Amino acid sequence: MSAPESEVPLPRRRRYRDWVRQRFQRNRVTRLEATTLTEMLDRLEFAERDNDQVKVDAMLDIIGRRSFGPLLLLPGLLVLSPLSGVPGVPSLAGLMVLLLSVQLLIGRQHFWMPQWLLNRCVSHQRLQQAMRFTRPVARWIDRLLRQRLTFLVESYAVYFVAAMCSLVALTMPPLELLPFAATSAGVAITAFGLALIGRDGLMALVALGFCLGCGFVMLHAFT
Q1: pLDDT in tens, 54-103
Q2: What's the DSSP call for residue 152?
Q3: For residue 70, what are the contacts with CB-CB under 8 A and spacing of at least 6?
Q4: How would you class 84 by CB atoms within 10 Å of its CB: exposed for 0-12, middle for 13-18, buried for 19 or more?
């Protein structure tokens, strides 16, 4: 006689997905920030959608609005993924980064975004495709993150990170004119976000290197 359906153990992957859904669905989001890139993708997977559209507002709700590191990862991932090929996405990401960075520099504790920006949408299908593309890279990057050179990502160093992110954000709209050139800016922003959530100063130095790369691309393309 077969066991009742309720007693049949669920597959491991399904149990994990159910746990993630229960923890990160919109009406149960906590203030605990993501500590890995994979966890960020897990959260974004359960962002609330309206038909086939996911608003920026819903993405911010699912990752939280108080921590600079995770908030940087959202626009960074948008530009780093295949979504960067969608017209306007790099400029939208650049504006988000600029707003976040300036607010941190002036000492705000809760980050604000204009309503018209929060109402911007991304296709849910495209978002899922972008996350599937990013996951293998995310797992590899997560294995590299370590707490090291933490003085580069703590205290006043965070203001330097915010200032560099502001400069990178300003390059995104003009870089959008060049095919996939904004990807270098996306790498820099993502690396800074990872450095902050993982307290990895070495990753911050990598991000700084990509900032210099963005500057080189700008000089080479527009001079």
Answers
A1: 888 888 888 877 678 888 888 888 888 777 777 788 888 899 999 999 99
A2: G
A3: 33, 34, 40, 63, 64, 193, 197
A4: buried
Q: How far is CA 131 from CA 15, 105, 161, 175, 210, in A?
A: 20, 30, 26, 23, 22
Spatial separation of the C-alpha atoms in residues 42 and 63, rounded to whole Å: 10
Q: Dig out the tokens for 18 from the structure.
A: 């159910």
Helices assigned H by DSSP within the chain: 12-24, 37-45, 56-63, 68-80, 89-105, 115-118, 124-144, 157-175, 182-198, 201-222
Q: Tell me how far apart the alpha carbons of residues 130 and 76 are, in angstroms, rounded to a whole number.
A: 12
pTM: 0.75
Tally Cβ neighbours within 10 Å of residue 76.
28
User: What is the distance between the terminal CA atoms of the chain, rounded to a whole angstrom?
Assistant: 78
